[in-house]
Fold YihY/virulence factor BrkB family protein.
Amino acid sequence: MGISLGRLYRVLADTVWHFSEDDGWAMASHVALSILLAVFPFLIFGTALAGLLGADTFAPTAIHFIFDTWPEEIAKPISEQIVQVLTMPRGGLLTISVLAAAYFASNGVEALRTALNRAYRVSETRPWYLTRLLSLGFVMMGVMAFAVISVVLIAVPIALRFAEQKFPLLKDVLAMISSWSVLGTLILLAIGLTISHLWLPAGKRRLREVLPGICLTLVLWLAGAFAFATYLATFANYAATYAGLASIMVVLIFLYMLGALFLIGAEFNASLMKFNGPRFLRKHHLEAKQQVEANPHSEVKQPANVEG
């Protein structure tokens, strides 16, 4: 379905206006800080759980997929700190500290849910314990996904070496496949964004309704990461301004930018649904009218009005 330039302008203007009205900048800072506070607990809990499942390479795999698409100036300091934290000796899985890590990791998901509710202009109707369980479920899904990937990353190189020995003519193709880690990271990001937009906020949305904002977010993230890395390499001198806090400030500002662009994608989806609403309502009214004419004694539920 095409979209005229006039409609696109109205959608973009509504996106920017609602982002400001919905406290988008404040919500982006909330998301950034919550995600930063959730990263360490998530990896601690994931490492403990994956160790029980036999996925001993969980930590490097998670670090690899989380930070590979970040600019090196941002990813290197925090990934080094994470490695130090994860190599510290700990007790078993069912300790209070590890269970607390799972709870604190879910706070990052809760922040995303609250921000998405604002962006999609919906009110949360589910009880708090249900949303918390949903957030914990997302944490478990993330841990299991990284655990499976860590096992696959061990098996795939072995399979590729075996295939290279059996089919030497495919050497160049196999080498190209083994170097597609960034593409794999982007695919994981797209899947994670899709799950977040569909099931985290209140209400129901169809896949086609969230895809435009997801694509916009991915494009803006790539452009923003490149621009921020260029800025750091050319102009910024955070060490002189923040001294020992320089690395953490760089990460916070980067996450703040990612959070804002993430919410802009959700606002874009909400604006598209708003401007497409009347068209869908006319279609639903026509279908309801045809149903009444076909069966005058049936009760037909009329669609609700679309709010601006």
Residues 246-294 form the longest helix (49 residues). The two ends are 22 Å apart (CA to CA). The chain has a mean pLDDT of 77. Residues 5-275 form one domain.
